């Protein structure tokens, strides 16, 4: 197959999207398929054999230059104007404007592809791809309605004065505007020919939140790259690790910080957060309020090998998220034989398994339960070792990028066949109507 893989943004090392695009495209090529990735900024890092076509935006959310006002010379067309105007209104326009740009590109290259696979852009303009002559399948990692619901519960009603030009605390009206792109997703999702999701939890949520026919949803588990492996060096005593976007309420980092502060009253510990915190953001403020700054460090900009080494250096890791559509970091930590304490939220229990062998599972948002579980695991090195081994075995049995690519390819073959049948049926109907006239 000749596959056009779309991704409106593909940050290479964090956030999951760029990692997904890189691993899946690599394994599809290994199966003999041709893959061309169409991406907006930030662009992905891709493996040899995968082609990248850049679909540049105004890049209005680049770290360190967020919400900028472009110079007039930067505007190339009305799509750029729309992107800037929507951003200034407090909305998030990238999915919509990327869709419009990529449809224009594909209109000129219909004969180059057999199928289009979109990575969660999910806007109505993408539906025009089928009218061009190409079948469209969609990847939805989880419905972003879940993110919005959690953020609305934690957002303030009143905008506070920014400490810097880049520090803004959105009130609830601002949250509604920021997530206004969900109306496009709700409109597009029921009309997409087929949807791939990474977990049964996500499948249920997509059906419920977006009104999608369950028969058009297929679960394809994600994979873990072979580079994630057990450490060769001793783990750092007292080191706890968390992989998360620190200032996103969805990730539950505030719960972990509260628990960590309680643990510090009796133990000498270190918490490493793999993220780059927002200057003056809620995480930094909470760390200062709890008086734990000397025991918390941040790690960002890591290479893949550095990330693997860090994951394997911790005595245990926490995934305190309030919701996840899959949680790839959880599976990667399991591959490193790092014992886990995780939340019973979204797909996380599916990833770690139902038997409790690979992780201790606590209720999301429960500081007390998280504190007790971490303390018990820190006090039991033998159970940590058993848990780490069980986690790695589960990853080896279930989470393979090669298997994910094979199942994705099977779904795309069916999408192509279904599209051809529907086109033939539409042509016959049109002919019949013309004959009646």
Give an overview of the whole structure.
The protein is built from 16 helices and 13 strands. It has 437 residues and is α/β, with parallel strands linked by helices. The chain has two domains: 253 residues, Rossmann fold (3-Layer(aba) Sandwich); 163 residues, Rossmann fold (3-Layer(aba) Sandwich). The strands form two sheets. It has a seven-stranded parallel beta sheet, sandwiched between helices. The chain has a six-stranded parallel beta sheet with strand order 10-9-8-11-12-13, with helices on both faces. Helix 1 packs across helix 16 and helix 9 packs parallel to helix 10.
Give the gist of this structure.
The chain has 437 residues and is an alpha/beta fold.
Spell out the key features of this protein.
single chain; 437 residues; alpha/beta; Rossmann fold; 7-stranded parallel sheet; 6-stranded parallel sheet; 16 helices
């Amino acid at each position: 197959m000749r596959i056009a893989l779309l991704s409106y943004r593909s940050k290479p090392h964090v956030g999951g999207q760029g990692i997904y695009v890189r691993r899946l495209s690599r394994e599809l090529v290994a199966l003999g398929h041709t893959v061309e990735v169409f991406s907006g900024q930030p662009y992905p890092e891709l493996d040899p054999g995968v082609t990248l076509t850049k679909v540049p935006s105004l890049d209005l959310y680049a770290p360190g230059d967020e919400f900028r006002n472009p110079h007039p010379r930067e505007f190339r067309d009305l799509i750029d104007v729309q992107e800037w105007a929507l951003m200034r209104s407090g909305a998030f326009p990238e999915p919509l404007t990327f869709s419009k740009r990529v449809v224009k590109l594909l209109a000129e290259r219909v004969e180059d592809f057999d199928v289009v696979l979109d990575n969660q852009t999910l806007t109505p303009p993408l539906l025009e791809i089928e009218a061009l002559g190409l079948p469209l399948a969609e990847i939805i990692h989880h419905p972003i309605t879940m993110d919005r619901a959690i953020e609305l519960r934690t957002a303030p009603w009143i905008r506070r004065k920014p400490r810097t030009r880049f520090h803004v605390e959105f009130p609830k009206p601002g949250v509604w505007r920021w997530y206004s792109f969900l109306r496009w997703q709700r409109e597009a999702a029921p009309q997409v020919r087929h949807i791939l999701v990474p977990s049964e939890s996500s499948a249920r949520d997509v059906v419920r939140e977006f009104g999608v026919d369950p028969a058009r949803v297929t679960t394809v588990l994600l994979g873990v790259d072979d580079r994630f492996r057990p450490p060769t060096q001793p783990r750092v005593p007292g080191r706890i690790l968390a992989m998360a976007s620190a200032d996103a309420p969805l990730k539950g980092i505030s719960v972990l910080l509260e628990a960590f502060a309680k643990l510090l009253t009796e133990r000498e510990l270190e918490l490493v957060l793999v993220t780059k915190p927002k200057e003056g953001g809620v995480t930094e403020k909470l760390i200062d309020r709890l008086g734990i700054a000397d025991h918390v460090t941040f790690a960002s900009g890591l290479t893949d090998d550095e990330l693997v080494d860090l994951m394997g250096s911790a005595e245990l890791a926490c995934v305190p998220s309030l919701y996840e559509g899959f949680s790839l970091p959880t599976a990667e930590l399991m591959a490193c034989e790092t014992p886990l304490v995780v939340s019973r939220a979204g797909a996380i229990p599916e990833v770690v398994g139902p038997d409790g062998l690979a992780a201790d599972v606590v209720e999301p948002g429960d500081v007390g339960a998280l504190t007790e579980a971490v303390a018990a695991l820190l006090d039991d090195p033998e159970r940590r070792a058993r848990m780490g081994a069980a986690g790695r075995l589960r990853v080896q049995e279930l989470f393979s990028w090669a298997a994910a690519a094979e199942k994705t390819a099977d779904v795309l073959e069916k999408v192509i066949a279904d599209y051809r049948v529907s086109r033939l049926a539409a042509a016959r109907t049109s002919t019949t109507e013309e004959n009646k006239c």
